[in-house]
Design brief:
The chain is built from four helices and 19 strands. With 260 residues, it is an alpha+beta fold. Strands 8-7-14-17 form a four-stranded antiparallel β-sheet, with no helix packed on it. Strands 11-12-13 form a three-stranded antiparallel β-sheet, with no helix packed on it. The chain has a two-stranded antiparallel sheet with strand order 1-4. It is elongated. The two termini are 24 Å apart.
């Protein structure tokens, strides 16, 4: 077995994974409330250790080299994006970096409703008077996990503490929630975050809102582009080393093998 070839192959695969993550971040540089992904890598154990082989199969040199790299757990970067005014009284931006808005999402496959979280505070009112997300039309939840219904033809306003009023009268309290372990959240598509298991919502450390604003993408376009270029260079370097190993084996078999 050409150990170096396998190490370079693992470098190609892990850097291809990094490239995909960074490219997706860059593609969402203008997505409202987008939470960027952070790819991580982990060291792979040498083959003998990974297979828990007997000591006679261990090779000191190869064990010191290691077994290459593998993709590690993917994490989320909750650094808030820039806030920009919209002029829409139903739009809100979150002040806390790890606070979220709760919405109800129906799964068409099962027909069941589930609570998801988002930092996209672009809201509107549907034909039934429900307060829904502008992207996806998902009902926005109040502090009691109930959809918020507004009165038709009456202007609504949202205060910095999440109180929704119409005509000066209180209507509902917008739910702003935290999460016990935000890194356990998983992306569900459509700029929504879901739970891997049990509901992990907890009181938000900062439930302050900024009405009339929305939060932009958390992606730093320059950094994302540099990361993409870096991962592409690393991928190309490992691919060239694979070609070198292939050429070396070809000479070993077809040139040195004919000697004598």
């Amino acid at each position: 077995m050409n150990y170096g070839l396998y190490l370079s192959a693992s470098g190609v695969l892990t850097n291809q994974y990094r490239q995909d993550v960074f490219a997706n971040n860059l593609a969402n540089v203008n997505t409202v409330g987008y939470t960027p992904d952070i790819p991580t890598l982990r060291q792979r154990e040498p083959e003998a250790r990974e297979a828990n082989a007997p000591s006679e199969f261990h090779q000191r040199l190869l064990d010191r080299i290691g077994g290459g790299t593998l993709p590690g757990p993917q994490r989320l970067d909750f650094t808030p994006g820039p806030q920009t005014p919209t002029g829409n009284p139903l739009d809100v931006a979150l002040a806390g970096p790890k606070s979220f808005l709760a919405v109800r999402v129906n799964d068409p496959a099962t027909g069941r409703d589930a609570t998801h979280l988002t930092r996209d505070g672009r809201f509107t009112m549907d034909t039934a008077g429900n307060l829904v997300t502008a992207a996806g039309g998902h009902p926005v939840l109040d502090v009691n996990d109930e959809p918020i219904t507004l009165l038709p033809n009456i202007p609504a306003a949202i205060s910095s503490d999440g109180r929704i009023s119409q005509g000066g009268a209180f209507v509902a309290q917008l739910q702003v929630t935290g999460v016990r372990d935000p890194q356990q959240l998983v992306k569900k598509g459509g700029n929504l975050l879901g739970f891997t298991g049990a509901d992990m919502r907890s009181p938000a450390q900062d439930a302050t809102l900024r009405p009339g604003f929305v939060e932009g993408s958390g992606v730093d376009s320059i950094r994302a582009l540099m990361n993409l270029i870096d991962s592409n260079k690393a991928l190309a370097s490992n691919a060239k080393i694979i070609q070198f190993h292939d050429m070396t084996m070809d000479r070993a078999v077809n040139t040195l093998g004919r000697i004598g």
